UniProtKB/TrEMBL annotation:
EC number(s) stated in the UniProt entry for this protein: 2.7.11.1
Gene3D superfamilies xref list: Phosphorylase Kinase, domain 1, Transferase(Phosphotransferase) domain 1
Pfam family, one: Pkinase
CDD domains (alphabetical): STKc_PknB_like
Upper classification of the organism: Bacteria, Pseudomonadati, Myxococcota, Myxococcia, Myxococcales
Name by which UniProt lists this protein: non-specific serine/threonine protein kinase
The keyword Nuclease appears for this protein: no
Signal peptide: none
Classification via PROSITE patterns: PROTEIN_KINASE_ATP, PROTEIN_KINASE_DOM, PROTEIN_KINASE_ST
GO molecular function (one): ATP binding
Source species, domain of life: Bacteria
UniProt keyword annotations, A-Z: ATP-binding, Kinase, Nucleotide-binding, Serine/threonine-protein kinase, Transferase
């Protein structure tokens, strides 16, 4: 890692980092230095710094690991930052190691989950330096938080739950991480959350059809001893439950502030993993809840058959713990859960529909409003004002996808009303809905169980979305990156597959395979930078264009596509220039909001013009809170 500067001295002259030049790790030190000459020798600047790699300029060293050196790099126009990991020079001639380096990218791309670091490209810098371009993580590893102080249990649970979800996605694709530890979990600020998880380092991940560990010599054990499951310590059968154990270790460490088996050398730790029982967490810290202790100890069972069998079961148990204390405090065992009263929300729709309604349930995907009177029509779009952190409500939009009649409500033991499915939401709106969901989390589930959901209606809603285009079908937001799009596609696929089970016959059942094919086509279209670029450009979706540029679309390709688009509609360029001129005036006058709006209008007209992107993203970056 880069040593940091104790005072506020000037940035390093070699790499621009926060450390004195003399301590710059990017400098290769001549051999004579190690020979003990008194005279300090001049350091050799890192030749990669300042060079262009693909479409990015290498800016500074981020750190070195066992396989490679990682640099921060920036797109000179869009300003988007990426991390570039170069395989160590000495390893580039070794096909085994190059293969393992590529396996990491392959494993990550197979999964494509928002809580896993995204990999954009994988290439060779001539003559023989391999590198991968990945999402830059501006944050800190979970280990730094654990070392700094005892972590708030609510934060730990949130981190563990995000990890469990990322790992569930990995396991679904046949990938077992095998090196879970707090150092490999980055926490970044995203969508209003201070601890958004990014899991990284799939360098020794096991893929279903191939095993990167097999690339290590026979008998060599891979992993980090403190987190290794017994079967991993003795080179046994590795499967998803191996990751359950490691996540259990992280849960233990987060709860108690220490690991059960440490010190006294690697063989001692490996033996302890095999034979010794961990000290129960409540013996270390009696304030830990019995429920959490039970979950941790179950995850740490020596025999995989005694652990949670998959991440979904582990996550469900952690979720119970998260809800536990309020429930326990509010009611005796067996009594109904306490009812948090949701706020009344303004709900407006077509034909002057306006009500103040209290949702009984809120989740990422939607809201349920108990309502006895006339319900808004199915498939009508409603706007709902949800209370937000700043005091002013944010407006979210959704579609009425289900009516629950009085008869159905009696059968399902719930209230009559309607369900509103929310579309893709911008960050602040999503945060407001998440907060509402958290507020209602201690309430019993009132919507029907998935098997009881009226499948035909849900299917109709998806078919209607399919008619709107690929973004609408996937429920993706224009600003979503490639991992989010892949995740959305998988979610809609899962939903359709579940519906298929409920539709045994009839014309609707035959529509499912067609919709599944449409989902795959939408995912392929939006998942490929080359294809997505033109769709986004035509829609004026400059966010999407920026993602495609960051993913490596070269400027000449971009300009050729732009010329093709302008030849279809030459007015676009003039329109963009008019907005650009207004934006510049507004920016000069210090009217930032107007400047942003004008830049956005310019970009919507001519989204492939990189010269328009530059001032817009510059301004956005200046406004971003650090
Ligand atoms: N995507 C990224 N964004 C920001 N910083 C990163 C990123 N990837 C790696 N780093 C930084 O670079 C350092 C080295 O990363 P790398 O993955 O090579 O290290 P490592 O985890 O020690 O690897 P290994 O397990 O292969 O030894 C990390 O410690 C981290 O600080």
């Amino acid at each position: 890692m880069v040593p940091t500067q104790a005072d506020d001295g000037p940035p390093c002259a070699l790499c621009g980092g926060d450390h004195p030049r003399a301590a710059c790790p990017s400098a290769a030190r001549p051999v004579a230095h190690t020979l003990g000459l008194d005279e300090p020798l001049p350091v050799v600047p890192d030749p990669l710094l300042g060079t262009m790699v693909g479409s990015f300029r290498v800016q500074r060293l981020l750190g070195r690991g066992g396989m490679g050196t990682v640099y921060l790099a920036e797109h000179p126009v869009i300003g988007s930052k990426v991390a570039i990991k170069f395989l160590h020079e000495s390893m580039c001639a070794n096909p085994e190691l190059v293969g393992r380096f590529y396996d990491e990218a392959r494993a990550v791309n197979l999964i494509g989950h928002e809580n896993i670091v995204a990999i954009f490209d994988l290439a060779l810098l001539p003559p023989s330096r391999y590198y991968i371009i990945m999402e830059y993580l501006d944050g800190a590893p979970f280990s730094a938080l654990l070392r700094a102080s005892r972590v708030d249990p609510a934060i730990s649970l949130d981190v563990l739950l995000q990890l469990a979800d990322a790992l569930r996605a990995a396991h679904d694709r046949g990938v077992v991480h095998r090196d879970l530890k707090p150092e490999n979990v980055f926490l970044v600020r995203r969508r209003g959350r201070a601890h958004f998880v990014k899991l990284m380092d799939f360098g020794i991940a096991k893929l279903a059809d191939r095993q990167t560990g097999a690339r290590t010599a026979a008998g060599v054990i891979v992993g980090t001893p403190e987190y290794m499951a017994p079967e991993q310590c003795e080179n046994g059968r590795i499967d998803r439950r191996t990751d359950v154990y490691a996540l259990g270790m992280m849960a233990y460490e987060a709860a108690t502030g220490r690991l059960p088996f440490t010190g006294q050398g690697i063989p001692h730790i490996l033996l302890a993993q095999l034979r010794q029982l961990p000290r129960p967490p409540r013996e270390v810290d009696p304030t830990i809840s019995p429920a959490l202790e039970a979950v941790i100890l179950k995850a740490l069972q020596k025999d995989p058959a005694d652990r949670f069998q998959d991440m979904a079961a582990f996550a469900a148990a952690l979720e119970e713990v998260r809800r536990g204390p309020e429930r326990a405090a509010a009611r005796p065992p067996g009594a109904p859960a306490a009812r948090a009263l949701a706020p009344q929300l303004d709900v407006a729709g077509p034909g002057g529909y306006h009500r103040r309604l209290r949702p009984s349930e809120a989740a990422r995907g939607g809201l349920f409003f108990p309502e006895e009177g006339t319900l808004p029509p199915l498939f009508s779009r409603l706007a709902v004002d949800v209370p937000a952190a700043g005091g002013r409500p944010v407006r979210v939009e959704g579609e009425v996808v289900r009516h629950v009649s009085a008869a159905e409500a009696a059968r399902w033991q719930m209230q009559p009303g309607f369900a509103l499915q929310l579309g893709a939401l911008p960050g602040d709106a999503q945060a407001a809905v998440d907060a509402l969901a958290a507020q209602l989390a201690s309430r019993p589930a009132l919507t029907p169980q998935p098997t009881e959901v009226p499948a035909p209606l849900a299917l109709d809603a998806i078919a209607k979305r399919a008619a709107g285009g690929p973004y609408e079908l996937l429920g993706a937001r224009p600003e979503d990156g490639f991992p989010e799009i892949r995740e959305r596609a998988r979610a809609v696929r899962r939903q359709l597959e579940a519906l298929q089970q409920n539709l045994t016959s009839g014309t609707r059942a035959t529509r499912v395979p067609i919709l599944l094919a449409q989902v795959d086509a939408a995912a392929a279209l939006l998942g490929s930078p080359g294809e997505r670029l033109m769709l986004d450009a035509r829609r004026g979706n400059f966010h999407g264009v920026a993602h495609c540029v960051t993913a490596g679309t070269p400027p000449p390709v971009l300009e050729a596509r732009r010329q093709a688009m302008l030849s279809e509609d030459p007015r676009r360029a003039d329109e963009a220039q008019r907005h650009l001129a207004r934006a510049r005036v507004a920016e000069k006058l210090g009217n930032v909001a107007a400047a942003l709006a004008e830049y956005e209008a310019a970009l919507r007209s001519d989204p492939l013009d990189l010269e328009l992107h530059r001032p817009y993203w510059d301004l956005r970056r200046r406004l971003e809170p650090r």
